[in-house]
Amino acid sequence: MTDAPLVAGVELGGTKCVCVLATGPGDIRAEARVPTTTPGETLPAIEAILDRWAQEHRFAALGLASFGPVDVDRASPTYGAITATPKPGWRHVDVAQRLIARFAVPTGFDTDVSGAALAEGRWGGAQGLESFCYVTVGTGVGVGVISSGQPVRGLGHAEVGHLRIARAPGDSWPGACIYHGGCVEGLASGFAVEQRTGQRGETIGADDPVWGLVAHALGGMCHNLVLTAVPQRILIGGGVATKQPQLIPLIRAALIESLAGYAEADRIAAQIDAFIVPPALGDQAGPMGAIALGLDAL
Amino acid sequence: MTDAPLVAGVELGGTKCVCVLATGPGDIRAEARVPTTTPGETLPAIEAILDRWAQEHRFAALGLASFGPVDVDRASPTYGAITATPKPGWRHVDVAQRLIARFAVPTGFDTDVSGAALAEGRWGGAQGLESFCYVTVGTGVGVGVISSGQPVRGLGHAEVGHLRIARAPGDSWPGACIYHGGCVEGLASGFAVEQRTGQRGETIGADDPVWGLVAHALGGMCHNLVLTAVPQRILIGGGVATKQPQLIPLIRAALIESLAGYAEADRIAAQIDAFIVPPALGDQAGPMGAIALGLDAL
Fold first, then answer.
1. The pLDDT of residue A68
2. Which of B145, B164, B261 comes nearest A165 by C-beta?
3. Model ipTM value
4. Which CATH code of 3.30.565.10, 3.20.20.70, 3.30.300.30, 3.30.420.40 fits the domain covering B7-116+283-297?
5. pTM of this prediction?
6. Most buried pick, A5, B20, B149, B181, via CB within 10 A?
7. Which residues contact B236 (CB under 8 A, 6 or more apart)?
8. Under an 8 A CB cutoff, do A179 and B260 touch?
9. In chain B, what are the domain boundaries?
10. Could you tell me which chain A residue has the CA closest to the CA of B232?
């Protein structure tokens, strides 16, 4: 227990939503899960949980970390909505505005990966840094880009998983992204690995050549991140990265080779084991991301 | 004449340095040029000009926009120096600290392209925007990335000209960048065009297929900028872009094709002629960048 503000957080995921009442990862007061089915079922179930918490505990802020893409422009009439998701039934569904109206507390709303990045910055592997990236390599590839302490903003939010990168020499597999074919997600996601090999990722040996191709794509993404968002550190987690721990050293080597001595390459190479690292919060990054967004709204 | 603060600006370029005393592009009180030879010649010549201006006019701030890479980390002992430039004699040469010590006024220091971007934000083609990019395609490819009104900061400054991108189908020319071969600069700079064709860019016809390859590289760079820095607008100027005006429509088409409907692609496509535009300040963007950096230091 601490004197820190109590925050209600909701991580809206593609298959389940995690509601959490906490001041931070060391002080979780309550947690509840709701399956993500339809907005008509899922959102009222979340509201019922938050209603109970509001009565029993009062919370000072609300944080919402959602699967995307989402409308994060506070000046937009559709601020707080999920936008062009392929997820059936959830396209153009308001999430934040109805909860802001219901609970009338300061509310933060952003993508799940931006939230997770902020949580790593507050409590995890990016503490003390102003500019860093959080990458999750799972079914897809998601990236939270933090610049000067905040998620990068402009025309929407970052979608770095869909960068187009230089291909590994001799690799002409078309890739698995329905939009871009061989973008980063189309080459390096768990779904892409499954499409390319016909095997589930966890059944593929650590020395299979597919991991070199995955690391090449992720190293290429890191090259472009380094030269655009100039992070002080890149955290790489998610199911694929966690289950195939040989990937991180391969990505480090791919980044150094790709930078080829340019710009801050020497500084990065000299501290590469601290520059590309696994995240520190593990499975907590998602729900703690919602708490971090709530705290940032205060 | 205005009541705005009077700023002394220095644009340090690879061949010449432009000193300017101004409140903005509509109110230039003095201008002087110094050839860029050696630091031992060039920097004292700049100081002599600024000394005179300091006596005659007093200026409230100083702005320094330099060729790069430069050390922009205010906490670094080498803040204000040019770092790993290939330019003979200028590697690890302090520029800002000696001028800060000499004139004791608030001083802004950044790359020439960050300065030019800020000038376009204040007075030119990016007024009213928080997040935008300024691209110059000349001998090299330089990009100023502005996020939430300021140049992106972290481990150094952005160096987007050296992104690695997907190659145009069937194009296997190795590229002209000494670090990366076929990065953006290695494919799209004036130097790269000259290397590839054996002709100077201004002698190549507008319908030559090389411009399609240049536009593919710059469109790929814009794709990655859109998904990382999420700019509200991208300004593209510089000698090559100015002398080959057919490039801007080709880059617009390449970006739309590359985004392939993803993320904010529909919003961008609907306003593409306002999304990728030439800069508004022309040759003034460089020196006015120095003035903008001085104003931002106040």
1. 86
2. B164
3. 0.96
4. 3.30.420.40
5. 0.96
6. B20
7. B135, B136, B137, B218, B247, B248, B251, B276, B277, B278, B279
8. yes
9. 7-116+283-297, 128-279
10. A155
